[in-house]
Amino acid sequence: MANVKNGAYREIIIDRCLQSRRGFSTQEIFDKCNDALERRGEIPISSLNTIRNDIISIENRWRVVVEELRSGREKRYRYEDPHFSIFNSPLNEDEITQLTQSISMLRRFEGMPGFEWVEEMSAHLQETVSANSEPVIGFDENKELKGMAFFTPLFNAITEKKAIKIKYHTYKNDKVIEGVVHPYYLKEYNQRWFLFALNDKYKSISIYALDRIETLGKTSAKFIPNTEIDFSHYFDNIVGVSVKSDEVPQTVKIWVDKEQLPYTLSKPLHKSQTVIEEKEDGGAIVAIKVIPNFELEQLLLSFGERFEVLAPSSLRDKIADRIKKNMEKYQ
After folding, report:
1. 26 vs 8: CA distance, rounded Å
2. What mean pLDDT comes out for the span 117-126?
3. Burial (Cβ within 10 Å: 0-12, 13-18, ≥19) of residue 166
4. Burial class (CB in 10 A: 0-12, 13-18, 19+), 285
């Protein structure tokens, strides 16, 4: 009987192994699956027969040939078709029905605060189940994005209100820290996902980038519920994810040149954006009301010479200093 627990996730790992032209042995696939499961904080499998049954299931479900390679006494497995992947295979009728129902359910959330991602997700699913063989939508995505293996267990921990152990690689001093956290919220920004959780040691909200998480694990610690933060409005006054709770929003004034202006008007820097002055050369001065943070600096710098920060002076000086340091590298 097939081991269905974590079966879908194991198939993702096995699929990657079978795409390799080198091929992988049953033991190697077994080890890779267990390594991935342990990093997700889930129970590893205990039998090589689970992997063998998974491979048979993949062959039957997707009607694909998994060929056997011999290297001495060792047997390795790979797809006969070097271009095959379960993610490239068309969906069957049952899967299309399930996804169509998912689209219908997701659309109920469109327009609600905190569910801005639903519209894109609905379009993504609709494109997947479309009978049109020609792709009509291109999404800016990275299927190999590091850390996404932790998304589902974190989502489950949040919805089930469970504390978790986390092993995390920090940015500042490049060291690995461990501790217990109480997960509250997941947010995507700039194609990266971030976890907002109460740190058990510091009793404060901490931000964890999923691509910096080393492992997740279970803990007997009692979950501490979120009673202070309304995440549907927590990010109203910032760009990105770094919230400085001890600061208040400031009016940031930016000169935008005429070539960039149409794009900035069609895609505002922040929902508070307004045009406060139009210039004779076709440019304009726009204003946003936000708390300056690192993500805002990165965004403003990304527009290069087409932007000039006018106010506040503290932000203008910081941007100027970063540009100066960058210029020094090119001299």
Report:
1. 18
2. 61
3. buried
4. middle
pLDDT of residue 19: 93
As a whole number of angstroms, the distance between CA 264 and CA 283 comes to 11
- 19's CB contacts (< 8 A; 6+ apart) are 78, 79, 82, 84, 85
The edge-to-edge listing of strands for the beta sheet with 192-199 is 204-209, 192-199, 176-189, 164-169, 213-218
Burial class (CB in 10 A: 0-12, 13-18, 19+), 109: middle
* DSSP E strands, the chain: 66-71, 74-79, 164-169, 176-189, 192-199, 204-209, 213-218, 250-256, 274-278, 284-290, 307-311
Which carries the bigger pLDDT value, residue 165 or residue 190? 165
Tokens of 298: 């990165």
**Average pLDDT over the chain, rounded to an integer:** 86
* Nearest-angstrom CA–CA distance, 33 and 13: 6
Q: Which of 182, 296, 289 is nearest to 239 (CA)?
A: 296
Tell which residue, 10, 44, 39, has the closest CA to residue 153.
39
Q: Give residue 61's pLDDT.
A: 85
Residue-wise pLDDT tens digits, 240-276: 999 987 889 999 999 999 999 999 999 999 999 999 9
Residue type at 82 in one-letter notation? P
| CA 146-236-197 angle, 5° bins | 45
d(CA 144, CA 138): 17
Q: How confident is the model at residue 121 (pLDDT cuts 50, 70, 90)?
A: low
Cβ 214 vs Cβ 176: under 8 Å: yes
Q: What is the rounded distance in angstroms from the CA atom of residue 310 to the CA atom of residue 314?
A: 10
Integer angstrom CA distances of residue 288 from 61, 256, 273:
53, 13, 4
